[in-house]
Design brief:
This protein has 970 residues and is mainly beta. It folds into five domains: 3-158 and 197-211, Galactose-binding domain-like (Jelly Rolls); 214-319, Sandwich (Immunoglobulin-like); 357-579 and 625-693, Glycosidases (TIM Barrel, Alpha-Beta Barrel); 695-795, Immunoglobulins (Immunoglobulin-like), CATH 2.60.40.10; 809-849 and 873-968, Sandwich (Immunoglobulin-like). The protein has 13 helices and 47 strands. Strands 1, 3, 4, 5, 7, 8 and 10 form a seven-stranded mixed sheet that branches. A seven-stranded parallel sheet has the order 27-26-25-24-23-31-28. The chain has a five-stranded antiparallel sheet with strand order 41-39-40-45-43. Helix 4 runs parallel beside helix 5 and helix 6 (441-455) packs parallel to helix 7 (474-483). The longest helix has 25 residues, at 626-650.
Length: 970
């Protein structure tokens, strides 16, 4: 399909109709391909349909010339570039487009990123695209453009130093990739297998832009703040290029609006300036600053709204009309950071408010660079749903794309963006890597400055960091410090005083965000570059709360397990990969897990650490099969990550200013360090994190047994109460206390009372603890936290026979549908009758529940909306309620806790193959892996999209609920 480029001013994506072929199989050169002998059809060898944006390996997989490298051991069947040579993965990409420019218009071909270098041929004319994975290419092709059809061919070469993969694997292979300015993960790591083509390809957006005589280049927006954020100025600087042969008399316009509802917007500012530009000249122009009084501020997730304004800049040329325009979302916010004198950790402030950082490390969305807005939105919303407030883009990955930042802006995730340096590939490792980093330092700085210009207008971008566990070479580091120095206004916290900024801050390359030379320096880990991050393995949950668990104020990497659910294992591995590990009992009494070869290839990390941590799955009894193993793994995942976050939060400001978990997700089908798998199904750890990281949280300190309330919000709590109840396996409540009339200061973790139950007479070997923080005025729940506990030195083995219990449940639902998009409200009640009392909190009416629909992504979050309000908003978007409210009564003869209930959504099929994955993914749940004491009920909001024509069914499973209840929506 040929793309038609309009003669109107603007951008047209060139993402369709591309063909690809291996260069060694194409006898023609670029001139002939784009003049007399273009490819005839994708089915005529050696040509095939290309993945653009994408990679060579993605194209080969799309056309079934290689097996799925993410499935089982199939990556081993794909030839590695180290064995084939670079020519094997050097590919031609070809497309056509239609263009009919009017007079005095110009057309640019834009490649936002190519890996690694390329030659471009258009209608027989050659242009060379220089090296570097992280740089933009914009080519004025007006003079070689044809009216009508144009033929475009791009020959793409792999990185210059793709390296080899040592037999032992290792971090970044043999580290040769570090000599290039490219992603380093492609040579494999301890969490990922090598990418065979090293991500060669046209991997990011391709477009054509039409402008008039004057082109707008890289506007920079900066806001300055005064009088306690009531008086704010917007500064804007733009480069203007006159490509004509005559003087351009221009009207330059800036337009600031804010969306009110739907397509209605409010104009905040409209300003026009006159400027004259000589022929063939590029000038830099700064607008007079725009004044705003009390604009809505942009806040990180959990602290307020993510208010965004639309800023548009346009240029009109006398005698021509509109010549070019540019627009971008912009958020008014000020980000500061300094080394805290008390903890030694780096402390971040946003709009003057200290932020306790609870976030995660991010590699990239997909290892084959199959990047999309839809996948990015799911990824980022998952992080917001977990109540994170920061994502660190690790230096061995990529400079993340504007779409990634767009959704971080919307969902309130601060971003730590590293440049392309890692300790393993740039100074240490086995074998020892090149201490001088990339070979071409000038190219590195060119890519770095271009990346800054690409991303700097996003409010979510919080800081730049030179590299992972290493600093860039001295000359690069010095240059980056100079390029990214702070404007004086952003060096200090004082927002009062008169408007006295002498130099426009928008003239800086950035000037608003701190630059840190490396992830272990200047307030991170020990601050001196020593390898003091981690640990990365299974832990005793109580250890996270210990006084000496981690010695430094901000841990940039602390890792743990991440086994997915059984359905994912079956979806990503053949049957021989469904074998669970052997549990080998050692003479020390510890268990060593021995995984099967496919799990080992997929980097499985065990649930035991002999000598330090007993096997956390075996605590529930040895698993008998894959389903049993993965279910128990979700229990452990939940406990591990909840304890990790609660332990750090318990010491908020007293010992820590923040932490980042290694890592939140996997760019391939790995089996470690993740809250959701590559297929986008969440683990139990996702919901343990979601609970522990909520802005206001009630928790049990596992070390001191003191109940605490952590308030990371900006609001003090008054007239709140904590309800503490203990439940046994028979459904009785042997312990119940309420501590009322409490006040909890903002930005504090405060002790409430010591938990005394285990010290009472005849404590149960296994019991459940339910904590609720609620408003005394109306019993609305601020925080709910459910623990399953065993006595010191004990285990959870009594939970195994608890599986045989049959708990009575009442399940009801409301469903709302728009096309293939669904929002469902599920209500589950444990109707057990033998509770000694019925608490007024049992309805679990939450304050500001963060369960908003994916289809309603921009409004209030975290503490500003009731559940009922959510569904009123959803209802406006949907065609209506389907079949009214559906109610199911699930009878059961037993009484007790309905334990570890979890929903899933499946595609309904009359017939399906054995083992076929029927899950609908991704799905957003307001809660999952939850438990209900007798009489208690829970509302869960579920949103998802289905494949065209599919009929979804909601399924409920649980530890002691095996009805696998299927809830029909239609």
């Amino acid at each position: 399909m040929t793309t038609e480029i309009s003669a109107e001013i603007g951008k047209t994506l060139l993402h369709s109709g591309w063909l690809a072929a291996r260069s060694t199989e194409v006898e023609l050169n670029g001139v002939r391909l784009t003049t007399t002998n273009p490819p005839a059809h994708p089915s005529v060898a050696p040509w095939m349909e290309a993945a653009v944006p994408g990679t060579v390996l993605g194209t080969l997989f799309k056309n079934k010339f290689v097996p799925d490298p993410f499935y089982g051991l199939q990556n081993e069947a794909i030839i590695d570039i180290a064995d084939s040579g670079r020519e094997y993965y050097t590919f031609w990409f070809f497309t056509t487009f239609q263009s009919n420019l009017s007079g005095n218009h110009f057309l640019d071909l834009n490649f936002r990123a190519i890996n690694y270098s390329a030659e471009l041929f258009l209608n027989g004319h050659k242009k060379v695209l220089p090296k570097g994975m992280f740089r933009r290419h914009s080519l004025d092709v007006t003079d070689i453009l044809l009216d009508g059809q144009n033929l475009l061919a791009v020959l793409v070469h792999p990185p210059d130093n793709p390296g080899t993969i040592p037999p032992q694997g290792g971090q970044g292979g043999d580290h040769e990739i570090g000599k290039d300015i490219a992603a380093q993960y492609v040579q494999g790591w301890d969490w990922m297998a090598p990418i065979r083509d090293r991500n060669t390809g046209i991997w990011d957006e391709v477009s054509a832009t039409v402008t008039g005589p004057v082109k707008i280049i890289d506007p920079h927006l900066v806001s300055s703040f005064f009088d306690n954020y009531t008086r704010i100025y917007l500064h804007s600087t733009v480069d203007l290029q006159n490509r004509s042969s005559a003087v351009a008399d221009c009207s330059l316009n800036i337009h600031v609006t804010t969306d009110i509802e739907g397509s209605i917007c409010l104009v905040e500012h409209l300003q026009s300036q006159n400027v004259s530009i000589a022929p063939g000249v590029t000038i830099q122009y700064s607008f007079p600053e725009l004044f705003f009084y009390k604009p809505k501020l942009w806040w990180p997730n959990g602290l307020g709204e993510q208010s965004l304004y639309n800023v548009s800049i346009s240029v009109n040329v006398k005698g021509h009309g509109e010549s070019d325009y540019w627009n971008h979302h912009f958020g008014f916010r000020k980000i500061e950071s300094h080394i805290d004198s008390y903890t030694g950790g780096r402390l971040f402030k946003v709009n003057g408010q200290p932020i306790f950082i609870r976030g995660g490390n991010w590699i990239l969305s997909d290892g084959l660079l199959r990047l999309s807005k839809k996948r990015y939105e799911t990824d980022i919303k998952f992080h917001a749903d977990m109540n994170f407030n920061m994502i660190r883009c690790w230096g061995g990955g990529i400079a993340e794309r504007p779409d990634f930042y767009h959704y971080c802006d919307i969902y309130g995730l601060l971003v730590w963006q590293e440049f392309w340096i890692t300790g393993d590939c740039d100074g240490r490792g086995d074998p020892i890597s090149n201490i001088d980093g990339p070979q071409d330092h000038k190219l590195f700085l060119l890519c770095a400055t271009d990346t800054v210009k690409l991303l700097r207008n996003h409010p979510s971008l919080a800081l730049w960091v030179g590299g992972n566990e290493q600093t860039p070479p001295d000359d690069i580091n010095s240059a980056l410090k100079n390029y990214l120095q702070l404007h004086p206004h952003f060096k200090y916290s004082n927002e009062s005083g008169e408007f006295t900024i002498d130099e426009d801050p928008s003239k800086y390359l950035d000037g608003t965000r701190v630059y840190i030379q490396g992830s272990l320096w200047d307030g991170f880990a020990d601050g001196k570059g020593n390898f003091t991050d981690g640990p990365y393995e299974i832990q005793n949950p109580v250890d996270f709360f210990g006084e000496y668990y981690y010695k430094y104020g901000f841990n940039p990497e602390v890792g743990n397990v991440g086994m997915p659910v059984a359905a994912t294992i079956r979806a990503i591995m053949p049957v021989e990969g469904w074998q669970i590990p052997l549990f080998k009992k050692l003479s020390s009494g510890y268990i060593q897990e021995v995984p099967n070869p496919i799990w080992e290839y997929h980097k499985y990390i065990p649930y035991s650490k002999p000598g330090l941590v007993h096997d956390q799955i075996e605590l529930y009894t040895l698993p008998k099969d894959l389903d049993d193993f993965c279910l128990k793994a979700q229990l452990v995942n939940y406990i591990q990550y909840r304890a990790l976050i609660e332990g750090y939060t318990s010491h908020m400001w007293k010992r820590y200013t923040g932490f980042l978990i290694w890592k939140t997700q996997n760019p391939w089908t790995g089996l470690r360090g993740q809250f959701y798998d590559h297929l986008h199904d969440q683990t139990g750890g996702f919901y343990g994190c979601k609970s522990a990281a909520e802005p206001i949280h009630v928790q049990l300190n596992l070390y001191t047994y003191i109940i605490e309330v952590a308030n990371t919000s900006s609001n003090e709590l008054f007239d709140v109460a904590v309800e503490v109840s203990v439940w046994d396996l028979e459904g009785a409540c042997p312990y119940y206390k309420v501590y009322d009339k409490l006040t909890v200061p903002h930005k504090k973790t405060v002790p409430i009372v010591e938990m005394t139950y285990p010290k009472t007479k005849n404590p149960k070997a296994v019991y459940f603890l339910l904590l609720k923080l609620y408003n005394m005025s109306d019993y609305s729940i601020i925080s709910r936290n459910f623990y399953w506990m065993h006595l010191p030195g004990g285990d959870y083995k009594m939970l195994e026979p608890y599986k045989k219990k049959r708990m009575p449940l009442r399940i009801s639902s409301n469903a709302y549908i728009r096309g293939s998009s669904y929002v469902i409200q599920m209500q589950v009640q444990n109707t057990s009758k033998n509770s000694a009392f019925h608490s007024p909190t049992f309805k679990n009416t939450f304050v500001g529940r963060n369960g908003d629909s994916k289809l309603d992504p921009t409004p209030e979050r975290n503490g500003s909306r009731k559940d009922s309000g959510l569904f009123q908003r959803i209802y406006k978007h949907f065609s209506g309620e389907v079949d009214g409210r559906k109610v199911s009564e699930i009878n059961g003869p037993d009484a007790g806790v309905a334990f570890f209930l979890h929903f899933s959504v499946h595609e309904s099929k009359k017939e399906h193959k054995a083992g076929e994955d029927t899950r609908v993914l991704p799905v957003h749940y307001s809660n999952n892996y939850f438990s209900l004491v007798p009489g208690e009920e829970m509302s869960v909001n579920i949103s998802f999209e289905t494949p065209q024509g599919a009929v979804p069914r909601v399924r409920l499973d649980g530890w002691n609920y095996h009805g696998s209840h299927i809830h029909a929506i239609l």
